[in-house]
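This is your field. Pick holes in the following sequence-structure pair:
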Amino acid sequence: MNLVLHHEGDILNKTVSLSIKNSNNNLAELIWEKGVSLAVEARKSLNTYSVKSEPMDLILAPGGGGILIHEACGHLLEADYILDNNSVFSKILGKKVASESITICDRGDEEEDWVYEPFDCEGSPTSNVKLIANGYVSGVLTDVKTAKVLGCPNTGNARRQSYEFLPICRMRNTYLCAGNVLPEDIIKDTKKGIYAAAFTGGEVNSQTGDFVFWVNDGYLVEKGEITRPVRPFLYAGNALDVLSKIDVVGNDLQFEVGECGKEGQVVDVSYGQPTVRILSQNIGGLK
């Protein structure tokens, strides 16, 4: 759901996601409640801070920030990217890339998840795959063919849009595991930074790990408090740099749902993370 607010020459955007699965809730009421909440937040954004191009600590809100994990980590650990040497991870499998607090997984075997597929499109059982385990690159998302070539286990990640397509290696529910820090304590411990509540767009160079995203919903953090909204800004970074600079992980894991395109095929996915802080990130540039 997207809201556009015009005010004295300014154009502000606010975005919120809404997902329902096996729910008895009234859809119209939920949409109305989300819309009202979005409008209130947009009004607050009229007194905004313009982000300058400078390194700042970046706090990612739970849930939506998981798109960064999906794009800049999950895709780059799909086996076809690895085999084609088209991933920044191709030559660092088994290497340490983050602190011990960082574990990133992809799973398809949990019934409560948005994408529940106990078997993949080749009939192989799915599982919970650790892509990053305690800071080390530990897993690759494989199908029958790529597992055989790589000499590693078949993780059951062969997926396709429909019977008209051939299965390829794909993510399902990809997430950064929760830590043990309260999200409010992460904010209190930040002298100056940006709290990023929502991302949009985004491009990733798979060979280098460089990426750009727009942060459409962000807030200035000063002396341990969220003080005011910031104008939408460009966030440019690198996957390996981000992993190495996550210094604290919250205990509030949340998921968002969406669709993922690859080689002309679109499939349902979810992605998630708790609140995390990334030190000294390159942010700036108004949208």
In short: The helical segments are 27-44, 66-74, 79-83, 144-150, 183-188, 239-245. Residues 91-173 form one domain.
